[in-house]
Amino acid sequence: MDLIVVKFGGTSVGDGSRIKKAAQSVVNEYMKGSQVVVVVSAVNKTTDELIGLSNDAIGTGLTDKQKAEIMAMGELTSARLFSATIESLGVKSEFIDPYNKLWPIITDSNSLEAKIDLNTSNKKTEGIKQLVNQGVIPVICGFLGKGPSGEITTLGRGGSDITAFLMGHCLDANEVVIVTDVDGVMSTDPNKIEDAELLDTISVEELRDLATHGAQVLHPHALKYKDPLISAKIINFANEDLSSKGTRIVGPFEGEMLKCVTLYKDPISLIAIVGEAMLKKVGLMAKLTTALADDGINIFGMSAGQNSITVFVNKVDSNKAYLLLHQLVIDTDVLSSLSLGRDTAMITFVSPDIIETPGIISDITEPLRKNNINILEITSSQTAVVLFVDWEDGEKAHKLITEVLE
């Protein structure tokens, strides 16, 4: 018998009729023979309204503990409503909130950005499993946790998605379904480009990067909890059918629940190209990359400034790349000269927390400074920091950066 964890976002339970349709879709899936666990968000905009009310009434005197308790009222209410609606359709249901002895999500004492105790939470899901095996549909409050003293905590933005993926993992579910107000993940914002197309699949890495850059489908933090062995998809509540196609989320997040530091095995060469107002030259980057691509030379990275561009290539390709780019310099008015740098080591630091951790760059670079290791270039993305140091410093730098993880 398949076990499905389905999460309904705020717009999916935005009013009474939507709650009834959502509950009916759960009952329909249950009647097909599936076991279903529901995670529900607060009714659309309820949390923001509660925060606004408390700010107007109390202002800065509101403590984090009080704020968490007030914010929780949205989920406490929607879980009760949803569970009662399921029962009105003839199926047994029980709402599970942090006051319930079966509550599964245990956190630290941080009221507003609580960290989940994964081991304890995993053990606590036994009660939910028993409920499901009895033919009951549990409706769990999204976004909320329980601290060490039994106090209500909140998981921050994307908290309900975190709850859904975490429950999927702990319950060893077959599938996690995220029900929202869009058909799935589109090729771009359909409000900006009418020809945007629905994607059949998207990788966890791709979705995280999209979400980090502003796409509103899922909060990037929630994807760290997506179990690579469990199927997941995003569907539109308007379909009223949990078996709707939507967009399937595939693969694990490469940095999921772990961080790593790698030293590339071969030396990397840096080729620096200088010129006048290079960033204003339309198509310059395209010419540069095409010149190397046409000869089968891989680019490991690029960095650009107003008057310079640095290209990183494998040392074995450096002389060929140097000659090709020199010809580009000769043929392009805005370019003046180029130089081939010494051998460098490329060290990649991967972590799902980079985008959400202030000071993480300094944490990585400070040990190198203390050991007189010069950083020749540094680039970063939402989930990785790449550093280039002198080749002879590579092993030592790799060891020092690895210690940051310990």
From TrEMBL:
Q: Which UniProt keywords apply?
A: Amino-acid biosynthesis, ATP-binding, Kinase, Nucleotide-binding, Transferase
Q: In which pathway does it act?
A: Amino-acid biosynthesis; L-threonine biosynthesis; L-threonine from L-aspartate: step 1/5; Amino-acid biosynthesis; L-lysine biosynthesis via DAP pathway; (S)-tetrahydrodipicolinate from L-aspartate: step 1/4; Amino-acid biosynthesis; L-methionine biosynthesis via de novo pathway; L-homoserine from L-aspartate: step 1/3
InterPro entries xrefs: AceGlu_kinase-like_sf (IPR036393), ACT-like_dom_sf (IPR045865), ACT_Aspartokinase (IPR054352), ACT_dom (IPR002912), Asp/Glu/Uridylate_kinase (IPR001048), Asp_kin_monofn (IPR005260), Asp_kinase (IPR001341), Aspartate_kinase_CS (IPR018042)
Q: Name one GO molecular function term.
A: aspartate kinase activity
A Pfam match is ACT_9
Name the GO terms of the biological process aspect.
homoserine biosynthetic process; lysine biosynthetic process via diaminopimelate; threonine biosynthetic process
What's its EC?
A: 2.7.2.4
Q: Which family does it belong to?
A: Belongs to the aspartokinase family.
Name this polypeptide is given: Aspartokinase
- Whose protein is this, by species? Methanobrevibacter gottschalkii DSM 11977
